[in-house]
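Quick one: structure for this chain?
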Amino acid sequence: MSGEVAITRDERLHLATSMRSFRCEKVSAFVKTLLACDVDAARSLLQDVSRHYPIVITRELTRAKDWVRNHSRGSERFGLVASSKAQRLKPHAIDVRVDINPIHWFLNGPSDTRSSYYLEDAATEFDIQGLELDWTCVSWDADLRMANGCWEYHSFRGKRWQRIQRPESQNYLLNAYRVLLTRARQGMTIFVPRGDIADSTRPPRFYDETYGYLSSLGIQEI
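Got it. Here's what it folds into:
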């Protein structure tokens, strides 16, 4: 019969595992080892992940925002995310106490100041759990901080940070960062502030060791 289409089956072209699933599994494994302070495993996994999924780190929020903007293509979506306990990012104009409107944040276009594209309103783990962007800018505050090679867990109450003692609450905070670090399909930048020696709630020591730890894993600095 004229007009018939010939079809050739080639098993070599079968995608048994999608690229998205492959990336997701690798990134999730890397984040798990990062948060578990398994340095050797995290370094090894990062070398594999970074071939197709760039992860970078910086002390400058403007640089972090520029990086995700410059890496997005076409309709790829990017946004700013932070822990719901990251209450001392306010000097960087990131106030997690301000609720975002998920409809505007996830769906509206680049010209809408309420959308994720504007990189002004940060989504927390509550807003973004179960959802994804193409590129994320993860802002890391002193709620989860590295001290003497171990994580310390804090909540900001009143005018100071208070240590979180309950193991279940510590695990909750650790899981919040796991969510934030696994929301990007294509890649992410991590912003760790420098702190301010004149601000008792943001001394550089609250952030420097965290930045040093993440850098030591091989995350590229920009």
